[in-house]
């Protein structure tokens, strides 16, 4: 593997055309190249509206020999470079999918996609449709009925239309309308979610016209009274200048005076990350955001690929248009293209390395995405400790973690997405949901059982957040199996005379399918390599999945919501690996019908014992809004972790250096009291701790 | 309330005899006073073996008016000061319980306790029995049969005997024997758990004699071959000097250059903590360790008292003596008396304030316990964020937390116990299990379904860790109710035509009892004050309980284990408040029979709607050991949280100042690469972030 150890924080650096890693995201030049090849298929003045321009990953059968040769220093096989492209003929419904072979400068296929297959939204059209929705004369007429105060500014959140099987074959948007605080309408960041309006235009994305105007129900039932004269409501701003800010928070800084412990080796558009025996390649693309490839620990294979596969947020209000609110924030938008530009010192604390990416805009031009990933270490408390009570000698190490974080904004909501590695061989994926509830108007004095009034006139409907993490394991190799352990009580017997005994039983998952947790049996899924026994106890090396139980998709099995979010009904899906099966909700989620995602793949019922299998781990939150979630919600955190089981020969963190004051430089808060706080001083001559000399008795 | 704002890190400061807060732990002088009063009840030369010397908390009916007067500045009622004492006549089974009234200098009662009521272990007797077990001639004879190498040093972990109803009325200890690495027997901290022996003496604590020697079963069945010549086994040391330590970990320091944001007001033996609108009194006692009293947010009542109530660790091996292994680490030992002396820079990182405590030893002398609690702030990532995609303006704050941490060592295991507060009104309790597995010998080549071989010849039996947090709420007052919400699908109907609707249904818990979570219904327990409606949406103010599901006690309902660990079969117990009902497993857990804990109180079936109720929240881990847990296990983390629901009128953290580079001083890792790391430089002229000027459009 190329070991040129260059670290950079500059977002623009020319891609290395030679030696382009087959799993590296496509570069700016490759974007332009693919676009020109696609354009060459059409008359010169055809306006193509690009949607996806992303690496078409090589077949695993090619990629694995490459990365093994790369790791072990062999000759690298040649792998052709391909780009996956989707596009419209602009302002038509002619949606195309193509694969361009850049190595051969050819098109492998370029087909028009069938009905009910629609592209995700993109940023440019969202802005455009916001304007169209508000400026449309029919909409203006309706808005006038609201008799809004002079100078009011109406704002629009364009939403995916969703699916209900009722004249929904064409690509449309449902525009939810709000307004800024009318008393401060010049404030461009006024929290419009506090002032929802009951008029909701529907836009055809093909014709870019408002084709219908829906009235939102604002009571307990299906009645829609249409726009009524607007009653003054208070605002609810979140910007700091509208708050009486706390004055007593002292700074807390994280310093790494000798630098960070990780190294980043830039190789074109991807990066190799090395930290505390972990090594992996980090990519970033339009749809998934961060992708981890070829994750190894001390050189041992662990994961071929790991990335968020999709998420689904279905809403609980059964009435139109809300029954169609079911967002797939990756498939309908994209965790890469929606990623925030992370600001030093605001989003990430400590010694930070930023990674930027190159994506594409709707015209097929490369689009710089600066600082979409921040990488840093953090201290996460004690890693392990033991004190021999007889001698008082303590051995303690701290738990240092490596964090790779990205934040996406999908209209009202934010998701903070982070891969975290620690020194005990554990890798986790954490999602923090924050941002603003998607709100709708409600009449005064009305309560409904499917939502919470979070502000006068504002209803936040209950909704689920269901995430799916795709884990393509290679635990000491690619022939793996999925098993689950359960802890079961032993029946009373002569051998178990007091009814205290219990045992663990392992069940092999034979076929692809969806599987659930069972906390009452402590059911724990593990991915094993049955061919590699642990050197101490002979058990197959494995990694277990720590995923919290969650309430699965509540929508019933006949619903579009259920059929479309194919991952949302099980804690785990396991399938036999097939190239191209990356997205648990299917390739095209916008106004989809289902049938193209992980549930469908699993129904093939293929054997997955000692095979190349892929596991989708679901986790989530049933968000029942509360007042405290408004105007912006405090982060709600949900996390899955992969932990070694009999993979190592002892605690992999046993060799972490002891936690010492010399290294950590904590400060003892002193006796002197100052206004509003306590002054710290470093206690250089403090208690000797964690002595490294052993005691002899 | 006294507002003398003195901060101190000195462990010894004279107790203020006047103005002693009724909830403050007893002072050294009070210990001596109580002891002398008890001793005066006995002939002068009677050797009393003290077990508990702790505050006998005043009746809540007295304490509440006191703390309300204290808070609001009224006249403080007089409350008598009492000490709870238990003691033996040394080396007898005459175990006594007494309450001493220090105000009156009298004894309120002093009774001998009945059969099957035994005291916890204490540190002095543990050390003594270790010696007795090893030096006993009968034991020496057995050990000789092992033919241990010359110079071997045998070590003993004395364990609570447990209960099986078989001649177990007397107080005994089960001594598990191990040895140091015979090739390095001078190493006092050799990991003896790697070398377990099959001879296990039983000691009468009354006579201080070995009364029986058990042979441990070492195969798959109940056979006990007795001590066989010892076969050489490798060692498995955890001390750093026996490891090849990692060399590439760079320091990470946490600095608070302007000091910390919390203030600690010392009032005798307790401390008032103020931080970010939180205020509470912190106590510390022998059994519970940290106790939080009178927890308020912006002056509003939240919790009258919060503390770990007990924990139970039952083991899965059904054979003698292991079927009796069921440790109650608070009731059998004590989270206060077992607390580590926390070392600056080793256990706690950042700007640290330490609190010390005064407990008592077995002779009734005050015992200084330095640095048993560390208090510090920490950064826990982003608190909330929203970016208006139209303007790009981000509002973001970080999540600052206050941590109060204590670590207990109970022979082989450690538990890191921490209360954490954040700026969004949330308080959580986290337990990290670490330390060393309790091991037993196993023959080579044997596997058993109730444990894992973690080292040649070493079996670590499966076991559960079940914790119980006692929460005595006072949500905006003492008349509270427990309810639970469930999210349920709406049936299909004209109103729910597409099967997508769902609603939340609230159920009031009418009577005391044990209740379970149900993740499939998203069942969420809340403690409400039905008499205080939220000003925005009228819903009763509440705090919800976030507790992870766990596998309840596996031992069957007729077992001693089940009968004794009365909390271990339910996620939540709710009871009507009664003075003195603090410990979910009962007052006396050592070799107990059950019937005196929370399950028994709950069986009273009292109404708890709009009453003074107490909630016990259980959470835990079924620990199925893996190789990676040896020689010391990486922390396994489990956590419960209490979060506001419609308690506030908006996000309580909305007024946290924005996260800015100026405040946070993150470092941008630069281009220059240094050997083994990357150098950091502070980017003073970096990107402007999180501008405070609003944009106007």
UniProtKB/TrEMBL annotation, chains A, B:
Keywords: Copper, Disulfide bond, Metal-binding, Oxidoreductase, TPQ. Residues 1-21 have a biased composition (Polar residues). One of its GO terms (biological process) is amine metabolic process. One of its GO terms (molecular function) is copper ion binding. Residues 252-654 form the Copper amine oxidase catalytic domain. The keyword Ribosomal protein does not apply. The active site is at 329 (proton acceptor), 413 (proton acceptor). Topaquinone (TPQ) is generated by copper-dependent autoxidation of a specific tyrosyl residue. It is an enzyme of class 1 (oxidoreductase). Belongs to the copper/topaquinone oxidase family. This is Amine oxidase. It comes from Saxophila tyrrhenica.
